[in-house]
Amino acid sequence: MQNVQTLYSKACFIRAFEQEIADAADHGLVPGLLHLCTGAELVEAAICTELSGPADQVCGSHRSHGLALAMGADPVKVAAEILGREDGLSGGRGGTQHLLASENGFLTSNGIVGGQVPIAAGAALSAKLGARGGIAVVFFGDGAANQGAVLETMNLAVALHLPLLFVLENNGLGQSTAASFSSGNVDLLTRAEGFALPVMRMDGFDANCCLDGARASVAQMRSSGGPMFIEASTARLSGHYHGENAAYLTLSAPAIDPLAALASLLPEQPRSEIAAAAARRAKEAVAAAILIPELQP
Ligand SMILES: Cc1ncc(C[n+]2csc(CCOP(=O)(O)OP(=O)(O)O)c2C)c(N)n1
Ligand SMILES: [Mg+2]
Question: What confidence tier does 252 reach under pLDDT thresholds 50, 70, 90?
């Protein structure tokens, strides 16, 4: 129960943070397109809980606010970066799609679909060859799974026995394109098997499955020193980017909210207390980032 509660607290904070950032965007404060991670929180928080930066390093996609937070990046600095402010993680130059907090173990996110995957192989190689130890973990989508560089990296990770955990977050959509339209074989886990990667399926709607799978896969990697591949089912609960007219979403069955499923496992207390605390912390962090220019012109 303790683990489930901790996961709920982390996932609630990420969800609340995204809601605050969405509000800031609605007030014209966020430059560029904003890709929210609502629906993927359980998988991301469960896996990142097993990691510890800076020895372990995580790379993510265009949808990475939650990963940076889950690795322990300062939420005010994450928000300031998304808002394009000087006090952000990378001086406000990267924005929402280029978050950098390597001291916390969040190496980078990347707006080029699949671009983070070979970068993560570099992090895994340096973990293997250097004194740092640790593992590298890369999160990418079902759309990215069709990129050539992703497939090459899977092959290389096996050939070089790299400590690289591939986490394919399968929400069934790349922008508005269904995975069944862009892939001949929609069982994306079988691709990894083709490269002889040890594989695991993770039900991203089941908190205990996420917690157990994260613990087992990271432990296996630390003892083997080699790569692994997780295919995790996730949801994308809103448009591809915040504010998109995502009428196409109504063509499929309504998505289940993994966070609501997790909430139903907890009693009313401490559930509502945890949710309220997460909402308060997220509000304070984003408000602080918005105020930075007034405090430090
Ligand atoms: C190389 C490249 N091609 C296309 C795009 C435009 N684009 C941005 S996100 C995206 C969909 C990615 O889908 P997926 O990998 O499943 O991630 P999700 O958005 O579902 O999390 C596309 C096609 C891009 N940024 N980079
Ligand atoms: Mg997708």
Answer: confident
Count: domains in the chain: 1
φ, ψ for residue 40 (rounded to 5)? -110, 10
CA of 159 to the centre of ligand 1 (A): 27
Amino acid at 128: K
CATH number, position 130: 3.40.50.970
Residue 254, pLDDT score: 77
Query: Is 135 exposed, middle or buried, given 0-12, 13-18 or 19+ CB atoms closer than 10 A?
Result: buried
Measured CA to CA, the distance from residue 6 to residue 15 in angstroms comes to 14
pTM to 2 decimal places:
0.97
- All residues with CB under 5 Å from ion ligand 2: 141-143, 171, 173
Nearest listed ligand to the Cα of residue 238:
1
Protein residue with least CA distance to atom 19, ligand 1: 174
Residue 140 burial by Cβ neighbours in a 10 Å radius (0-12, 13-18, 19+): buried
CA of 263 to the centre of ligand 1 (A): 30
Position in ligand 1 atom list of the atom nearest CA 113: 26
Range of the domain at 100: 2-295
The values of phi and psi at residue 262, to 5°, are -65, -40
Do the beta carbons of residue 258 and residue 235 sit within 8 Å?
A: yes
Residues with CB under 6 Å of ligand 1 are 61-63, 111-113, 141-144, 171, 173-175, 236, 240
